[in-house]
Specification:
The complex is a heterodimer of chains A (197) and B (461).
Chain A lengths: L1 H12 L10 H7 L5 H11 L3 E5 L2 H11 L6 E3 L8 E2 H4 L12 E6 L2 E2 L5 E4 H4 L4 H4 L2 E7 L3 E2 L2 H7 L7 E5 L4 E2 L7 E2 L6 E7 L1
Parallel strand pairs in A: 1-12, 2-3, 2-4, 4-7, 5-8, 7-12
Antiparallel strand pairs in A: 6-9, 10-11
Chain B lengths: L8 H8 L3 H23 L4 H17 L1 H14 L3 E5 L2 H14 L4 E4 L3 H5 L2 H7 L3 E4 L2 H8 L16 H12 L8 H18 L2 E4 L3 E3 L5 E5 L3 H8 L2 E7 L3 E2 L5 H12 L7 E5 L7 E7 L3 H6 L14 H5 L1 H6 L10 H11 L16 H5 L6 H14 L5 H15 L1 H17 L25 H12 L1
Parallel strand pairs in B: 1-10, 2-3, 2-4, 4-7, 5-8, 7-10
Antiparallel strand pairs in B: 5-6, 6-9
The chains are: A alpha/beta (197), B alpha/beta (461).
Protein name (chain B): L-lactate dehydrogenase complex protein LldF
InterPro entries (chain B): 4Fe4S_Fe-S-bd (IPR017896), 4Fe4S_Fe_S_CS (IPR017900), FTHF_cligase-like_sf (IPR024185), Helical_ferredxn (IPR009051), LUD_dom (IPR003741), LutB/LldF (IPR004452), LutB_C (IPR024569), NagB/RpiA_transferase-like (IPR037171)
GO biological process, one term (chain B): lactate metabolic process
Chain lengths: 197, 461
């Protein structure tokens, strides 16, 4: 059995035990909680996201209605945005059925100021493929839901139970052709972030 | 594709160097990526502490690897993931093929995995009649060009957009002469979307595997790993044994370092955590050794297993930038590849530890503080001792040692050299002298320091 062979070889060859480093210094050093929304906004915008500070769901609806033609397929995981197909109702559908989705709207309770990332789990998504297969993605987050860095982000989700989760920090992109940045590789061509005050 | 080659690094680098403007462009492009890395790193006052912490976590991993591997396996199984073990590349490839064959699958989509390049999985599956399509844009381009990737993060960094335009025109039907990166990327998007929607199997690599939770993390900017995995019935994830990290919270260190070091972005667009399979689908993990446990036993080289595959050492390396990734004739090119490859085959890769100036820039940018240039130096000693160094170099070194050990020979050699430079420059200024390639020979002084000193002393007395 290769399993036993590999484990025996590893055990025989690995060096003497070496302790894990203390992580608290890094956590404390980076835990600066001022202006998180404006820091997030700057970084996310630089990464190609569109960030809107909004006062309520009506404002979000207005922006979506301005940006998207009537009749396009929009799936929303938010109760408050009920004009669209509700993700909960289609979550058992085959992922391939979402190939024509124009916009997916999700919500999260965790955003990271240092890199523009938003934490989304399978539960927030309805179906895992929804934030990837849609032509555009929008995420709603509260203004108090930001942490400074990934160190604090993992403190929030350290014991979380999820089947799948992803930090998403912008639209899908590539720079594989001569290092020129192109937005819209395989996933969404845009990421809009609505920060609720 | 990545066929075994008998040519060594100097020969392959010389071929790359025939096109001087392209070398300059390659050099500048990679240096630009290195500069972006610097800007990102300097923005974090805690950068050095972050590197040190990452290095220590990885050292802890290496020292407890067998326990962590078992812990990871147990937790992954608890999560509903099926775990396989492969001692070498052949076993890995067979496991993947069996999984596909059992389900009658003949087409697979694959996201970036340097491990599968190392195992030559694509060639193997092709021989078994399985069609594999690489979904990372850069990898798709080199796949269509029938070449291996030349860089672990930027697979087609050696290609000009006009060449990519020609490849897309031939294979994907883009307009002839079209070379706009936006239009070419859109062409690939349409082509690969169709692939994602029709493949029942997806294979991905693994960036980090968490022992504590049994989950694994995949980082991409394009979203191709997620598109493939979420639309397939079976997701196969291939990982080397060294991808383990102890706890979920440690991702908070590595995800902060990885992309800043690689491209200067603060994080990739997607950092996806796979813990359990979706309803009605399967996740299989193949844990691969392929020489890693041997490297773990080499005290001086085991630190190379800390590598998180960011590519920073390549972008900064003056030799890599000017010789191109293909000149390393191995899956992982550049400085890190040159300390990993001799472990797999010391004879075949005996040239690689010499493909370095030992300037140390690689070690300075490495996010997990691998002593890369020290290891390159140490490999040279091992390779010479084991008798794998190039013959000409061995002879030259022996002649040099003999000359330096004898004052008479040394003086004679110096005098002869100066006479040759002065009266017969053609004897050294020719193609037979490798030093003369792309260099002017220096002007020889009239006398040696020894001679000058003796004369001066005589005059004073």
């Amino acid at each position: 059995m290769s399993r036993e062979k590999i484990l025996a070889a590893v055990k025989f060859n690995q060096p003497a035990a070496n302790p894990l480093p203390d992580m608290e210094v890094l956590n404390t050093l980076t835990d600066v909680r001022t202006d998180l929304v404006s820091k997030y906004k700057t970084i996310a915008t630089a990464g190609g996201s569109f960030v809107y500070e909004v006062s309520g769901f009506d404002e979000i609806k207005t922006i979506i209605n301005n940006e998207f033609k009537p009749g396009v397929k929009i799936i929303s995981a938010l109760n408050e945005l009920s004009d669209y197909i509700y993700a909960e109702n289609v979550k058992h559908e085959d992922g391939h059925n979402f190939a024509d989705v124009e916009l997916t709207v999700l919500s999260t309770k965790l955003g990271v100021a240092e890199n523009g990332a938003l934490w989304l789990t399978e539960k927030d998504m309805g179906s895992r493929v929804l934030p990837f297969i849609a032509q555009h993605l929008a995420v709603v987050i509260g203004k108090d839901d930001f942490v400074p860095t990934m160190a604090q982000a993992y403190k929030v989700i350290v014991d979380a139970d999820y089947g799948y989760g992803s930090f998403i920090s912008g639209p899908s992109k590539t720079a594989d052709i001569e290092q020129s940045l192109v937005i819209g590789a395989h996933g969404p061509r845009s990421l809009s972030v609505f920060i609720l005050s | 594709m990545s066929t075994a080659t008998t040519k060594d690094h100097p020969h392959l680098a010389a071929e790359f160097n025939r096109d001087e403007p392209r070398v300059n462009w390659h050099d500048e492009t990679l240096w630009w990526v290195r500069a972006k890395r610097d800007i990102a790193a300097h923005k974090l006052p805690e950068w050095e502490l972050l590197r040190e912490t990452a290095s220590q976590i990885k050292f802890n991993v290496l020292s407890n690897l067998s326990t962590y591997l078992e812990q990871f396996e147990a937790n992954a199984i608890k999560n509903g993931i099926i775990v396989h073990w492969a001692a070498d590349a052949a076993e890995h490839n067979q496991i993947v093929h069996n999984l596909l064959e059992q389900r009658g699958i003949t087409k697979m989509v694959k996201s970036k995995s340097m491990l599968t390049e190392e195992c030559h999985l694509n060639e193997y599956l092709k021989e078994q009649g399985i069609d594999v399509i690489d979904s990372d844009l850069g990898e798709r381009i080199v796949q269509l060009a029938n070449e291996p990737p030349s860089h672990i993060v930027l697979p087609c960094i050696h290609k000009k957009k006009e060449e990519i335009g020609d490849i897309f025109h031939e294979h994907l039907g883009s307009a002839k002469g079209e070379s706009d990166p936006k239009i070419l990327t859109e062409t690939a998007r349409q082509h690969l979307r169709e692939v994602f929607l029709t493949r029942r199997a997806a294979l991905t690599g693994v960036n980090f595997a968490v022992a504590e939770t049994g989950e694994f993390v995949i980082c991409t900017n394009e979203g191709n790993a997620d598109m493939g995995a979420h639309l397939a019935e079976i997701h196969i994830a291939s990982m080397g044994i060294e991808k383990i990290i102890p706890e979920r919270k440690h991702l908070g260190v590595f995800l902060r370092l990885l992309t800043r070091s690689a491209t200067g972005q603060p994080i990739t667009t997607y950092s996806s955590h796979f813990s359990k399979p979706q309803d009605g689908t399967e996740i299989h993990i193949v844990i691969v050794d392929n020489g890693r446990s041997i490297q773990l036993g080499r005290e001086e080289f085991r630190n190379s297993l800390k590598c998180i595959r960011c590519g920073a050492c390549m972008n900064t390396c003056p030799v890599y930038r000017k010789s191109g990734g293909h000149s390393y004739h191995t899956a992982v090119a550049g400085p890190i590849g040159s300390i990993l490859a001799p472990n797999l085959d010391m004879k075949k890769y005996a040239d690689l530890p010499f493909a370095s100036t030992l300037c140390g820039s690689c070690s300075n940018v490495c996010p997990v503080k691998i002593d890369i240039h020290d290891q390159l130096y140490k490999w040279r000693q091992v390779i010479v001792k084991e008798g794998y160094s190039p013959k000409a170099k061995t002879m030259a070194m022996k002649a040099m040692a003999l000359t330096l050990a004898s004052p008479t020979l040394y003086r004679m050699g110096g005098k002869t050299g100066r006479l040759v430079f002065k009266y017969a420059p053609f004897a050294v200024n020719n193609k037979l002298n490798p030093w003369y390639n792309q260099r002017e020979m220096p002007k020889a002084p009239d006398e040696s320091f020894g001679e000058w000193y003796a004369k001066r002393k005589g005059a004073k007395n």
